[in-house]
Amino acid sequence: MSAVLTPISLHADAAEIERMHRLFDMQRNAFAAAPYPDLAARKAKLRRLIDALRRYQNEIVAAVNDDFGVRAGAETKLVEVMGPILEARHALSHMRSWMKPRRRSTEMLFLTNSAWVEYQPKGVVGIIGTWNFPLYLTIGPLIAALAAGNRAMVKVSEFTPRTTALLRTMLSGCFAEDEVAVFGGAVEAAQAFNALPFNHLVFTGSPRVGREVMRAAADNLTPVTLELGGKSPAIVGPDADLRDAALRIAHGKAFNAGQICVAPDYALVPRGSSNEFAAAVREAFGKLYPSVGGNPEYTSIVTERHAARLRQLLDDARAKGATLLSCGDVARTGRQMALTVVTGVNDRMQLMQEEIFGPILPVLEYDRLDDAMALVRRGDRPLSLYAFGLSPAEQRRVLRETHAGGVTLNDWGWHVFQHDLPFGGIGNSGMGTYHGEEGFRELSHAKSVFKRQRWFPIGLFYPPYGNLVQRL
Ligand code: NAD
């Protein structure tokens, strides 16, 4: 099916902001008129979404590719199409049980009465996504919002205009605008968006903008879920198969050209093994991508500005004494940038001070596992942590003695694709979770209900206080 693309102004135009206000009021009124969609209504919405993703999958691949320059089509299908379909299917199978009120015990003094928790839709949920996975990061939270019975307004990044236009066309084909509405626009539009008094706001992006979003939400006391980023470490244990770990980490750094919040940011390897590890990463990358420039399976850096930032990180590291090992043919030109492994790294280098979000892999050496964990703890709490080749006891120590939003052992990133697991950060990498049951709970209000039996002698607790209360 060929999509009709509705043009969206890339600039923060007054019309888009006016539309936000109008649709917010419309969604709020529609929610007030139908505050508790039943299971069948919620399921119907998720099924419509799945059908649309299936029907539009080729257009999605083309639109994301156009926005990036080159975006590996298989990566788009895997993450932007299959990811949300699996997420929605998981919700379809479990929503009946998630929606059920949960019985709780009463205090002994109140025996014979009843207490339970009801999960109620919050209302209108705002969703702000970012460009690196423009569908997965907006439709994922949307699935949780719809499963929980909410209405949703979705703001997509200014860097993916074609995908934004397609998303608007696709979603307007399955939802009325008072159920789900999509917005484009740049920073001014984003600021107007997060100033709206949503009943919940889910933001995906950088910790810097996350702070701004939270400040704006505070004015309305809007609860926020912040899906942010950070420097996710990959610890390669002393007994790890170095080549195997190098292959997994190279894949994590090359998938979407490292522009992924859960990419391994840097590797920690045992003292004396960084050269061997760097060579193994180079070999693995070369096997995955025999060529880089013009390879349709190797994703471009999204804009020239983002590419320039990455080149600057490399220049800074080289100027400060690091050794750079390029893994491919056009490491320094164009927006398809081959992976560069950096050894001889120190803390003064910019690439150890900020999230890399691209195909650059700093490699640091450690003496003991304790030292590697201390290095991880010294920085902000990351979104993910990866560990390779540790004994079960060492894995337990890493899990208990470091903090990270989520962990994959013996590989990278795959915990995010398990839709029965919650996804979210901690500290600088975010707060709150979505995916699966946790997403449903996050976007529902857990309402406590206590029901007194009419005959229950509650008067015993009224003044004048008798023996019962005096003896407590
Ligand atoms: P960003 O924070 O610059 O932008 C994110 C989104 O916020 C964009 O859509 C942008 O239009 C919007 N925005 C910009 N200014 C805003 C404002 N003042 N108010 C509201 N919205 C505003 O992030 P980015 O550079 O586009 O993305 C990279 C960052 O996102 C990295 O830190 C990465 O780790 C993180 N990320 C996190 C996840 C996750 O799920 N945790 C996923 C992808 C990316």
From TrEMBL:
<dbReference type="InterPro" id="IPR012394">
    <property type="entry name" value="Aldehyde_DH_NAD(P)"/>
</dbReference>
<dbReference type="InterPro" id="IPR016162">
    <property type="entry name" value="Ald_DH_N"/>
</dbReference>
<dbReference type="GO" id="GO:0050269">
    <property type="term" value="F:coniferyl-aldehyde dehydrogenase [NAD(P)+] activity"/>
</dbReference>
<dbReference type="Pfam" id="PF00171">
    <property type="entry name" value="Aldedh"/>
</dbReference>
<feature type="active site">
    <location>
        <position position="227"/>
    </location>
</feature>
<protein>
    <recommendedName>
        <fullName>Aldehyde dehydrogenase</fullName>
    </recommendedName>
</protein>
<dbReference type="InterPro" id="IPR029510">
    <property type="entry name" value="Ald_DH_CS_GLU"/>
</dbReference>
<keyword id="KW-0560">Oxidoreductase</keyword>
<keyword id="KW-0175">Coiled coil</keyword>
<feature type="coiled-coil region">
    <location>
        <begin position="39"/>
        <end position="66"/>
    </location>
</feature>
<dbReference type="InterPro" id="IPR015590">
    <property type="entry name" value="Aldehyde_DH_dom"/>
</dbReference>
<comment type="similarity">
    <text>Belongs to the aldehyde dehydrogenase family.</text>
</comment>
<keyword id="KW-0520">NAD</keyword>
<dbReference type="InterPro" id="IPR016161">
    <property type="entry name" value="Ald_DH/histidinol_DH"/>
</dbReference>
<feature type="domain" description="Aldehyde dehydrogenase">
    <location>
        <begin position="15"/>
        <end position="449"/>
    </location>
</feature>
<dbReference type="InterPro" id="IPR016163">
    <property type="entry name" value="Ald_DH_C"/>
</dbReference>
<dbReference type="InterPro" id="IPR016160">
    <property type="entry name" value="Ald_DH_CS_CYS"/>
</dbReference>
